[in-house]
Each structure stands twice: as C-alpha cells, then as structure tokens.
Design goal:
It contains 5 helices and 8 strands; from the N terminus they run αββαααββββββα. The protein is an alpha+beta fold. The protein has a domain of about 140 residues.
C-alpha cells in the first residue's frame, strides 16, 4: 500500500475521485468481516457505509459544502455529470493539513476495495494513541477505524499508520459477507480466503452471524 505525503492538486483530486468510486460500491450495503488465526476463535464485526462518512475519512471538512454534498459531487463527476470538486473545497478538518490529506487520499481507494480484504488484518482497537478513538481496526500499512454503533459499526477515520499501532491481537481476514442494509441476513459471500472456510465456521456460528 503506497502512502504519499506529496501530491499535486491534480493528483490529489484524482485520488479523491478514485476513492469515491470505490466507496460508491459500499453504500447501501452491510458487511460482516470475519478474521481468524490458526489457534484462535473467530473475530468478527459488522459495518455499514453512508455518504456522510466519506469526506471525513479523507481528513477534509469542506468550508463550501456538507459531507453528503461533497460525496455527491465526487460521485456525479465519476458518472460524467457536473464539474466535481476543487482544491478550494478540500478544507482540512481539525488536526489535519494538506500533508495528512495527501496521505489519506493516496491510500483510501485501495483500503476501500473490500474484495482485497484477504490482504488485510482486523482486530479490536486496544492501544492508546494520539489519534481519534475507534472500536475496530481494519487494514495493513494504513488503518480504517470503525466505531461501534449498537450491533454494527461505521467508518470513523482513516489513519495512514500501520494497524500494529492500534491493535494488539490482529486476525487474518478469512471471509467477508455482504447484504443490503435493510435485509436481515447475510446471503452473499464476497470473499473467502480458502474454499470451505465458511462452511466450517457456520457449524458453530450460524445464528450469531445472522445467516
């Protein structure tokens, strides 16, 4: 995963549009991310993505529009409609600057490509750090932090730092399940690290995993 602190205005905007394109595939869905190590129990959490979360993952708090409008402008531009955003729309949020925005945007599209989850690790955030607090960490060289909300969670922050800085016990992601947010049960297997892995898990966890 490449994290770049130096991006030109043009390259930064392209990185934001790429991230928005990946993010568009997640909106409206819920995901069950399940990890396991060789001699461990299964570790899992559920998450969902909304338009309003996207801008904040980039370290941006636009002075010209709200978070939903920011995402919509990016999405429409990717679809060939509208003029998109400008650098003037990318105001750094509190505790951020152009350098941290560059770092976040340079790796955002890659970490949001959930089909590549087998290359990531996951775990409970249990280390004290100077960064925003979150519940679950997902990532490798960069960390996507999720905050728990009832029986699910939402993406709160993207930190261009290794997941080791936030999580003591990391788990290899073995499969990811997907459903529409309004559906009760997960029915689509989005990623499985090894064929038959899910079948073994369901012998003991079917009810807990809402399948």
């Amino acid at each position: 995963m490449i994290i770049n602190s130096k991006l030109s205005d043009e390259v930064l905007l392209k990185a934001i549009y790429r991230a928005a394109s990946e993010y568009s595939n997640l909106i409206g869905n819920s995901y069950l991310i399940i990890g396991k190590n060789k001699n461990s129990n299964y570790f899992y959490f559920q998450c969902f993505f909304e338009k309003k979360h996207f801008m904040h993952l980039l370290g941006i708090d636009s002075a010209n529009m709200n978070a939903t409008e920011f995402y919509d402008k990016c999405d429409m531009y990717n679809k060939g409609m509208g003029d998109g955003i400008t650098i003037a729309d990318c105001t750094p949020s509190r505790n951020h600057n152009r350098t941290t925005i560059n770092e976040k945007c340079s790796c955002c599209a890659e970490i949001l490509h959930i089909q590549d989850a087998k290359y990531m690790k996951v775990g409970l955030k249990d280390k004290i750090s100077q960064y925003v607090d979150f519940t679950y960490g997902y990532g490798s060289d960069a960390t996507l932090g999720f905050r728990a909300q009832k029986d699910t969670s939402f993406p709160l922050t993207l930190i261009p730092r290794n997941i080791d800085e936030f999580v003591s016990q990391k788990y290899k992601i073995v499969f990811v399940l997907e459903k529409k947010t309004e559906e009760d049960k997960f029915r689509k297997l989005l990623m499985e690290v090894k064929k038959g892995c899910l079948k073994n898990c369901l012998r003991n966890y079917r009810k807990k995993l809402k399948m």
